[in-house]
Structure formats: C-alpha cells, structure tokens
C-alpha cells in the first residue's frame, strides 16, 4: 500500500489545483491496493457560516481510499476541536470532536452504464464526481455538522449555573437556599407518591 500525505506537498499544490483549497484526492494516484491519506488543515478550510459551528483546532483527517469500477470509497476518521458552549454553565470550552468518515464518490458518467450500483449501507453518503480529483472538504464538513453534540458539557462534574441567582457554581458557590435533589431519588419519590 502506498502512503503519501498532501501535507508533505508544499503550498504550490494550491496553484496546481487551480487555486482551490481543500482536501483533494487525485484519483489517478489511487493504486490497486488502496491509498492511505492524511490531511491536517486549518479550521478556516471549512465554512460553517450557516450552522454556527466554530472550529478552533486543526482539522485532521486520516483515511483509506479505494477505487472500484470508478467508485471511490473513502473510510477514515476526522478529529478536530470545536468551540462550544457548555449546556450547564454556558461557558465556552474546547470540545474534542472525533468522528468516522464514510463516503463514496461515484462517477457522474459511468462507462459501464448497464451495471447498477448497489450501496450496501443506506447511511452512506453517495456523492457524484467529475474529473480526476475529489475534494473531501465538503464531506468532512457535513460529517462534523452531523456530529456536533446538541448539549455538550464542559466537564462531567460541571455544576452549572444557580437557577436562582445565575452564579456559575464552578467558579464560586452562592448563598441561595437550594435542595440538592438527585434525579434518581426524585424519580423514586414520584413513584412512591403514585402508590400512595
Ligand atoms: Zn460547564
Ligand atoms: Zn444562587
């Protein structure tokens, strides 16, 4: 198996690829046994304006690429750091996002048009490509958007905000009278109340 990294190619690649920034795969470079590729790109390679996702670390992608009858199979992992707001204390914190990447690129024009392409997995993202190069960037961005947690928590033991005075209880305690209720006991209590 051959391994090469676009990282190793100096920025001249941008000119070579017509000035388009992205995680490019040159289809002609994929040998029989597949190809391992690694990318490390600055956060600004991904545009998230519509989604509000903020990437604050390098976007690392390691993948294995295979070509079969014109279809390009990409399997790998994405890791990066997102700037997220804690669902409990509302402070921003760096969230480490790790995700699998699984995407198939099918040629927009098939030479063997009689043959139906059957996808084994409905969850697969199938994208059509034209030309000799594939830009992985969009698939990586879409996958990151899918994996963004809805209510991330800065720390498992984050104490959140006092519901009465709004103090961030991680930083300082407050003097509001508050009953500490463990949600499990709460559920049990409700159950007992029901039986009465
Ligand atoms: Zn928090
Ligand atoms: Zn308080």
Q: Which descriptors apply to this entry?
A:
196 residues; alpha/beta; 2 domains; two-stranded antiparallel sheet; 8 strands; binds zinc ion
Number of helices: 3
Order of helices and strands: EHEEEEEEEHH
Structural class per helix/strand content?
alpha/beta
- Strand elements, count: 8
User: Percent helix among the residues?
Assistant: 10-25%
Indicate the mean pLDDT.
81
Give the CA-based shape.
Answer: elongated
Radius of gyration: 24 Å
Spatially, the strands of the biggest sheet line up as: 1-3-4-5-6-7
Largest sheet: 6 strands, mixed
* SS strand fraction: 25-35%
Domain module tally = 2
Describe the structure.
The protein has three helices and eight strands, in the order E-H-E-E-E-E-E-E-E-H-H. It has 196 residues and is α/β, with parallel strands linked by helices. It folds into two domains: 154 residues, no CATH class; 38 residues, no CATH class. It has a six-stranded mixed beta sheet. Strands 2-8 form a two-stranded antiparallel ribbon. Strand 5 and strand 6 form a beta hairpin. The longest helix has 13 residues. It is elongated and about 70 Å long. The protein starts with a strand and ends with a helix. The N terminus is likely disordered. The protein binds zinc ion (2 copies). The site of one zinc ion (ZN) has 7 residues, from loops.
């Amino acid at each position: 198996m051959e391994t090469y990294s676009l990282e190793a190619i100096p920025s001249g690649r941008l000119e070579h690829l017509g000035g388009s920034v992205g995680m490019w795969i040159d289809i002609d470079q994929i040998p029989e046994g597949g190809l391992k590729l690694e990318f490390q790109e600055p956060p600004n390679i991904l545009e998230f304006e519509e989604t509000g996702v903020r990437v604050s670390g390098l976007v690392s992608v390691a993948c294995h690429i295979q070509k079969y009858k014109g279809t390009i199979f990409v399997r790998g992992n994405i890791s990066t750091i997102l700037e997220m707001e804690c669902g409990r204390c509302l402070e921003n914190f760096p969230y480490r996002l790790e995700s699998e990447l699984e995407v198939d690129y099918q040629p927009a024009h098939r030479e063997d048009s009689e043959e139906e392409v059957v996808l084994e997995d409905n969850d697969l993202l199938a994208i059509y490509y034209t030309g000799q190069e594939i830009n992985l960037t969009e698939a990586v961005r879409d996958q990151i958007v899918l994996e963004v947690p809805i209510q991330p928590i800065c720390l498992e033991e984050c104490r959140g905000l006092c519901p009465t005075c709004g103090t961030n209880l991680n930083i300082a305690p407050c003097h509001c009278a508050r009953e500490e209720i463990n949600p499990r006991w709460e559920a049990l209590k409700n159950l007992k109340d029901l039986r009465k």
